[in-house]
Amino acid sequence: MITTILAVFVIALTMSVLVTPRVRGFGIRFGAMDHPHERKVHMVPIPRVGGLAMVVAFFGTLALIGFLPVEKAHYPIWDRKIAHLFAGSLVVFGVGILDDFRHLSARIKLLAQIAAATLAFFGGVGIELFLFSDKPLGPIMSYGLTVFWFVLFINAVNLIDGLDGLAGGICFFTSAIMVIFSVLRGEHTIAILYAGLGGTVLGFLRYNFNPASIFMGDGGSYFLGYTIAGLSILGSQKSQVGAIILMPLLAMGIPVFDTLLSPIRRFIQGRDIFKPDKGHIHHQFIRMGFSARRTVLILYGITFALCLSAVILVNLRDEQAGLFLILLGAGAVIFTQKLGYFGYLAYDKIYGWFRDVSDVAGLTRDRRSFLNVQIDISASKSAEELWSNVGRAMDMLNFDKGILTIYGNSDPAVDSNSDISEKAQSSMQFTWTSDGYKPWAQEDRNDLLKLELPLLDSAQKNIGTLFIEKDVRRDPISHYTLRRIEHLRRTLTAALSRILAEEPGRVSLSGGL
């Protein structure tokens, strides 16, 4: 059987080496080119139809297996599950190669990935047991987990395909370790398929490694990710779903880790979670000054170490395996933190984000206290009571001075024909100062925050102006000062509009304080 596996590997390698140059010419002829732009490292257009070469080499190899001395029980193509798996791989490849020629929307590509995973699931390729357990999953949970597994691997390979030879090399290491592991477990059919996939990828790397003359494109990355995901499920169905299915997951640790965190990173940064960017792990190495070739070699080394870790994992008991995974995960987090990949997840930023969320939701004590003052302002019965409550709000915000001018029924910004003296007579003014306020020391200072806020009612009529002043050297502006001021302005405007509507004569004829 070892001889057969080696023969499959050599056939796939040879076919890939021979087919890839011809497919490259096909891509150039029909314009399936990857043009340089801000997210790309290469400087000239390069064909992106390498996936077609890998599919032809892989399935061509499977066709030739019939001429090898393989036992019928190990012949892959007649197995119902494998047939459904291959059908799904052709679905995702077809969508990917179409995207290489004509860019498709993220929604269409995701739906195609789900459809291909569904095809494999109903053919019997599904995750059926809980992790580290022999307890079966329900059909709905089994389907959801299986689809997630396929989509995760497909997009992991796709996202890591940003440097010459990077995705292909990682997939080759994963296939190689799975060949060895499958042979040791007596899974000869799975070993043959992984050998064919590994040979196909290695032959393609002859032209894809830096400097690349052809890219695998979405067609290639989709095909590789889908096939590895499916074979990992097939290899684990005859045993408990534990360390067995984690083997390819750990071997593909770099792209999987990057894929899981990319949407979170984009969400935190306020970007479209489906829009590509230059924030992936390999991009971080480039920013650190490493060349593209050296970055790929470093990530190859990490992948090789992860493959060895996977071998250690499957030889541990469940408790030891769990501890090993925890230590490995902690090491991965520390490594990526040192790499600068999680700069946006620094403690102060995370703490600030949660603090902002808590404040907006009204969970902090300061926000609740200020909300109570807003309620009192809204319930004010007169201008005097209104201003007293506004003074409490300004004191809470550590402001030094506040002046409220109420125009009553005369709006100086609109009623331009009125005499200035008449406008002054029809307005009233309130002034508030903090306990330590010294007016003679406030002149000609450049460390004062001064804000003049127009109070516009629902009809966009200016019914007043609020002027506030703060010594930022004595007390800096807090994270929420400007937000609190806007809340104050809106509450004050609504309350003042109500008071003017209820007692217009009294307000306009009263003297200021």
Which labels suit this protein?
single chain; 513 residues; Beta-Lactamase; 2 domains; 6 strands; disordered C terminus
Q: What is the fold's blueprint, element by element?
A:
Blueprint: H1 2-30, E1 33-34, E2 46-47, H2 50-65, H3 80-101, H4 106-122, H5 139-160, H6 166-184, H7 188-208, H8 217-236, H9 243-251, H10 253-268, H11 281-287, H12 292-314, H13 318-339, H14 347-360, H15 365-378, H16 383-396, E3 401-406, H17 420-425, E4 428-433, E5 448-456, E6 462-471, H18 481-502, H19 504-509
Helix pairs in contact: 1-2, 1-7, 2-7, 2-8, 3-4, 3-8, 4-5, 5-8, 5-10, 6-7, 6-8, 6-12, 7-8, 8-9, 9-12, 15-16, 15-18, 16-18
Description:
With 513 residues, the protein is of the alpha+beta class. A hairpin with a 5-residue loop joins strand 5 (448-456) and strand 6 (462-471). It folds into two domains: 2-345, no CATH class; 361-509, Beta-Lactamase, CATH 3.30.450.40. The protein has helices spanning 2-30, 50-65, 80-101, 106-122, 139-160, 166-184, 188-208, 217-236, 243-251, 253-268, 281-287, 292-314, 318-339, 347-360, 365-378, 383-396, 420-425, 481-502, 504-509; strands at residues 33-34, 46-47, 401-406, 428-433, 448-456, 462-471. It has a four-stranded antiparallel sheet with strand order 4-3-6-5. 39% of the residues are buried. The longest helix is centred in the N-terminal third of the chain and has 29 residues, at 2-30.
